Structures
1.
Amino acid sequence: MIAITVAIQAYGTTYWLELLVDRLFKLPYDKFHKKTGKGLILTAFFLLLLNITQAFLWAIMYYFVPQITEFETLEKAFYFSLVTFTTLGYGDMTIGTSYRILSGIEAMNGILLIGWSTTLMFSAMMQIWKRTAEYESKEQLMKKKDL
């Protein structure tokens, strides 16, 4: 399951970065400046979708493992998985002792993947700030030349 969720994160973030670079970072400054907010919002939603998908895959696994009988519905398995993936760990639902190690592994997987998403979001913001600073310094140079 870890390999599957990491692969989803790797391919998903690679796809999104290529899309972001192609669509946003190649725009002229006036359009780039207007679309950065939208780009960051869409990036946040995309990364959230990736992480929810990964937690849902864990929920499917919990639901279909015959020895885990605590989840009568997929909704309960998904709730448990989201709480575990995000490392909230409310403790209102647990799984039996023979498979409880899975929840710890999911929590570590969740920390890794949410951290990866956070890093990507921060990187996108840094690239936007860098590009904005480059444009502003070019504008200042052009103004100095005009004087």
2.
Amino acid sequence: MAHAPDVVDTKQLDDEAPISKVMSVRTLVLVWAFLIAFAILNYYSATVYLDGFNTFVSLSIALVMGTVSVFFFMHLGFDRPINAFAFVASLAVAVLFITFSIADGRAYQSELYNREGKAMISTIQSRKAKTGQAPAQPAMIPGR
């Protein structure tokens, strides 16, 4: 029994047809099952405390899922290499921005939270409620 190929080039079927790829149902189902498995993995990875690496793990899983979706469902894997390069470069820039944002947020954690892990704003509000006085206002700057 002959097995159908995973990818069929329609150019071979009809000389007048535009160049495109038709993927077999088997390939599409396997990709769909992979994406469902990774979605379940992403869900369960969010329920486990990974000592500060939860965001990194979730973003990594999302990156793999997005790449598989684009390469198979949008046929980027069968397109010109420059398009794949543009996609990978845009992902790299997005990862760079997210990494800098997370690093910047961690740099200010000591200013935003006290030792007990409570937000400083709530501490100021609770002091105001206890004393009945508003926090001191900054001094007026001459010329403003």
